[in-house]
Amino acid sequence: MGGRAKARCDLLGVPPYSEVDGQLTRRFLSPAHDAALDTLSLWITEAGMTVRRDAAGNLIGRYEGASPDAPALLIGSHIDSVRNGGRYDGPLGILLGVDLIEALHDAGRRLPFALEVIAFGDEEGSRFAASMSCSRAVAGTLDPAAVLGMIDAEGVTLAQAFTAFGLDPARITEAARKPSDVIAFLEAHIEQGPVLEAEGLALGVVTAIAAQKRLMVRISGMAGHAGTTPMPLRKDPGPAAAECILALERICRAGTDNLVGTVGRMTALPGAFNVIPGAVEFSMDIRAETSATRDAAVEAITTEIHTIAARRGLTATVTLMQALDESPCDPDLTALLESAVGDLGLPVRRLPSGAGHDAMVMADLCPTAMLFIRCEGGISHNPAESVTEADCALAAQAMLAFVERLADRDPRPSTGSG
Ligand code: GLV
Ligand code: MN
Ligand code: MN
């Protein structure tokens, strides 16, 4: 259990499960996403589950409990990747769930609740500006009107992408689950940071997930000839954007509560060697342990952007694309997960998550718990992402211990050996 989950992530790291040869890029609703769901469906079926795709492009495997139609513990993560990403960010949490359920199936065990493994389609937001649209659909918090018109780099709307994937964009809210059908959501994920490795620990238990905001900034000036327009007469948004990014860095460096800010995308328009850009657009990703700290930073950065633009005779717009508040994991489930890690004889290390996860959205539907797995050098969102088979095996055992402890405290009966 566990080692195979890692091997399967590796298998899904190449075409047709990647859109690009020689790297892993699996964006939401792409042919690579479709191919990954087809193969995942086979593995889920082999593990003794029924399988279905929901109205929002999620894949769901279900292993019934001792009595039919019992509410389910959902276990999973996301199947999409960032551009040129690693193989374990997301899929590992799904495939550890498949391994765990297959072990119960092989032992002929039925729990008081059903188990479902879920592969969310869009956690990263690497195709469209907003992220986590699939877990938001399941949690019942997705507003289709706010997202269906978003366009990708090729000008395809999210609504068109859904249609091309064989889904009806008018029906995505049908993916919402009733709170009474869901007991909890358990997500295992690589840590994506260096803490566990530095402390020589395989596993960690997540206490809370940081708040984040995504914003787009556009600074507009005047396009012109790069050879003939004297420097003092230009209205060039390029240097203004550079100043704004330095202001973002300065404000975040001075911050508390693990405040971090990133400009991960930047475009000069129209984009030519010999044209002074008429506009520059860049993204901002701002995170902190609390929404209050995040919001104060966003406000300070926005003020700086307007001041810099005005001083240079330019105009600036700052548009909020998405806000996700901090999400504490459920204290009871977290304590149960800590006991499960302890059952393996491992030290219990609690830590917060700076990365976003589907669990933060699923918290609107049900209690959540998250298990972190050590990754090499803390490297993630990078093809160098790496985990060991041994750590994956420990994660699978801890997840099984968690599920067993949850079953033990459930008043409904279990069946089968164990
Ligand atoms: C997802 O990996 C995120 O933290 O943005
Ligand atoms: Mn990621
Ligand atoms: Mn992830």
TrEMBL record:
Protein keywords: Hydrolase, Manganese, Metal-binding, Zinc
Cofactor: record remark: Binds 2 Zn(2+) ions per subunit.
Cross-referenced InterPro entries: Amidase_Cbmase, Bact_exopeptidase_dim_dom, Peptidase_M20
Positions that bind Zn(2+) 2: 89, 124, 381
Binding site for allantoate: 214, 274, 287
SUPFAM superfamilies: Bacterial exopeptidase dimerisation domain (SSF55031), Zn-dependent exopeptidases (SSF53187)
Cofactor(s), by name: Mn(2+); Zn(2+)
Record keyword Zinc-finger present: no
Pfam families: Peptidase_M20
Keyword Manganese belongs to the record: yes
One example GO MF annotation: metal ion binding
Binding positions (Zn(2+) 1): 78, 89, 189
Similarity comment: family membership: Belongs to the peptidase M20 family.
Subunit structure: Homodimer.
Name listed for the protein in its UniProt record: Allantoate amidohydrolase
Natural source organism: Caulobacter henricii
Upper classification of the organism: Bacteria, Pseudomonadati, Pseudomonadota, Alphaproteobacteria, Caulobacterales
